[in-house]
Amino acid sequence: xxxxxxxxxxxxxxxxxxxxxxxxxxxxxxxxxxxxxxxxxxxxxxxxxxxxxxxxxxxxxxxxxxxxxxxxxxxxxxxxxxxxxxxxxxxxxxxxxxxxxxxxxxxxxxxxxxxxxxxxxxxxxxxxxxxxxxxxxxxxxxxxxxxxxxxxxxxxxxxxxxxxxxxxxxxxxxxxxxxxxxxxxxxxxxxxxxxxxxxxxxxxxxxxxxxxxxxxxxxxxxxxxxxxxxxxxxxxxxxxxxxxxxxxxxxxxxxxxxxxxxxxxxxxxxxxxxxxxxxxxxxxxxxxxxxxxxxxxxxxxxxxxxxxxxxxxxxxxxxxxxxxxxxxxxxxxxxxxxxxxxxxxxxxxxxxxxxxxxxxxxxxxxxxxxxxxxxxxxxxxxxxxxxxxxxxxxxxxxxxxxxxxxxxxxxxxxxxxxxxxxxxxxxxxxxxxxxxxxxxxxxxxxx
Length: 447
Ligand code: SF4
Ligand code: SF4
Prior knowledge:
Elements: E1 8-13, E2 16-21, H1 26-32, E3 58-59, E4 78-80, H2 84-99, H3 115-122, E5 146-148, H4 158-166, E6 173-175, E7 182-184, H5 201-205, E8 211-213, H6 217-224, E9 230-235, H7 239-242, H8 256-265, E10 270-273, H9 275-295, H10 307-316, H11 330-346, E11 353-359, H12 363-368, E12 383-386, H13 387-396, H14 428-442
Parallel strand pairs: 1-4, 9-10, 9-11, 11-12
Antiparallel strand pairs: 1-2, 3-4, 5-8, 6-7
This protein binds iron/sulfur cluster (SF4) (2 copies).
């Protein structure tokens, strides 16, 4: 970030006079000047890694071709980003990566959204001069939330940095060297046996399809087609603000009505709103807070809605477990209600109900698989889809989401107050609970 305290540095990039600041990297200075040096391992959320060497540049009177993401600017520096030597070096790097990468783009989960594919297109690479044998590794499907396909890994290191430095988990690391190098949990175990909390941030930042969420939307589509089953869906508050983006609607636009319409068109037998149980969570957590304030602890009370955070506390900070709210998350409360109250009210055998939820987080896939999440005597939530998976399902069904008219969730589990709505924002759960506490204690409604 540019600040006034930093010393200014003047340099030339591709013949353009560029002003930067001490500590800036050549890549940042070039991009600010409108020159888009290609990158692969670099990601602004985790900073430079300097492992892939796609962003190499030429520096006058310098040695070799340094990676611009880890080369600091200097006063008077002359940089060239598009010489023949630079282009050839980039091509060679990308061709070498492609030579040891599976050529199954059409079947890949990231087809069309793959950064390696986009880079190869940008550099005009249609074939590779190299051929490298790589030992085949079985996909790691041990986690309920994520799939790791080491054959597709390009060893960029993004996931390693994200997991260790941003998420503070360090479930992934580099093993071996040279052509045997591998990104893996410790001792090449499965993710399920590692410290992974299923947050999904590695999948979000992986440039290729080497880590991705466990896709289950096609399974849901098949279950809907089974006339012997009653497939019920619940949708989290955050999904209505996020899914529009997948269909060209500006990010953050609430599309609640279109979402309800789309889910009914997909054939779900009942369409419920997780906001109903978000309200229950608020009432329960608010009441629990009042009780703990009376009995002096354990405080502070920490909401238990985030399964990633719960697993993190269990694994790394068990001393905070007494501070966690004893309430289940809205997803799990709704799952239990669907297979008990709703099943009875609708006269449906709960064993014939498939309870699906659409959530903004991969950790919810792990949450529903926890053995204690069976208040109904069976698994309360059977399948969790992410927002992206639901978008795939909608597209596959040929539904033009952006053109849909507004529908409504089904009563009674589709009705909620405004309090549940703020669950979708950071800190919203506790804010909603505190508002409820205020109303219970003062007996005055908040405006
Ligand atoms: S899901 Fe989160 S905790 Fe697990 S490996 Fe990925 S980044 Fe690390
Ligand atoms: S799994 Fe993905 S993010 Fe991690 S090193 Fe491999 S390619 Fe990079």
